[in-house]
Amino acid sequence: MDSITIKDIARALDLSTSTVSRALRDSYEISPETKRLVLDYAKQFNYRPNQIARSLKENRSRIIGVIVPQIANNFFSEVINGIEAAAYLRGYYVFIFQSHESYERELVTLRQAIDRKADGLLISLSSSTSDVSLLQSLQEKKLPIVLFDRVSAELDVPCVTSDNFGGAFAATEHLIETGRRRIAHITIPSYISITQERLAGYRAALERYGLGYDENLVRYTDFGQTDVGPVINDLLTQAPDAFLAASDRLAISCLAALKKRNIAIPETVSLVGFTNTPVADLLDPALSAVEQPALEIGRMAAQQLIDLIEMKADTLRVGRISIPTRLVVRASSRLT
């Protein structure tokens, strides 16, 4: 069925085109009854807005640029689903770029998004990004920017993250409550925001239960490091009775390394990951993990960016939005 135009709706309902246009935009100037009449007719006869004309009139592309470290990462795939869902409801399109954990590629993708006239940017910083000067200059030029997951304190922009501190605290507390006392923490590069937040939660739980923080039980790994066997070997010299991994990638590698060494899980050593991969239940043993609300992070980040683009000050929450995590306990840390 061919879609109709605003003029067609106005003619059929004996209204002015400006009244129909305002009703479709949910303007406060139009009565609820008129809005209902217009929206019902528009739905019945397959009205679709002319996005090109709308963009020219509003001087907007209605495009959001999204930069993630890696789409293959299930967490970021879920975040993108949330972003696209929220953007669709608000009439925006999404262009997705990958930095592949490279600062140089992040700069290239930023410029690509700008060249495509994106109205705003949603960014999760790469693992090698320590210089945010380009983003600062874009912010000074009034380009709307929202950071999610991996953020920077050097940028005064809205940020949407999971509660990394609370998630790591809950995981460490769970391990302590099951009798563990020497809990090793395997994490990612120290300068990344999520690393710092999860380490802080881990330390806070140790301190809450009177267990001293031992830096010999903490190891940092690079994102490109696929074999954590040497790291596990090194940590095993410290006689840990549990491992808290700052990502599921690290947790799965840790699980494989421990099983290769015939270390019983959880009888000898417990293991908890972070993010809650979809295959967690299929591992042997099933992996306990902190579940991050990836879909909600994406939705909230997109909503914040669109509010920023449209200058909806009444709904915009400047600063950080931290969405609660959930600890999912499975066989890798459950002692019976």
From TrEMBL:
Keyword Transcription regulation: yes
Keyword terms, alphabetized: DNA-binding, Transcription, Transcription regulation
PANTHER family: HTH-TYPE TRANSCRIPTIONAL REGULATOR GALS, LACI-RELATED TRANSCRIPTIONAL REPRESSOR
HTH lacI-type domain boundaries: 4-58
PROSITE patterns in the cross-refs: HTH_LACI_2 (PS50932)
UniProt KW RNA-binding keyword: no
Domain of life: Bacteria
SMART domains, per database record: HTH_LACI
Gene3D superfamilies per record: 3.40.50.2300, lambda repressor-like DNA-binding domains (1.10.260.40)
Pfam families with a match to the protein in the record: LacI (PF00356), Peripla_BP_1 (PF00532)
GO molecular-function term, one example from the UniProt record: transcription cis-regulatory region binding
CDD domains with a match to the protein in the record: HTH_LacI, PBP1_LacI_sugar_binding-like
Protein's UniProt name: Substrate-binding domain-containing protein
Organism whose genome encodes this protein: Salmonirosea aquatica
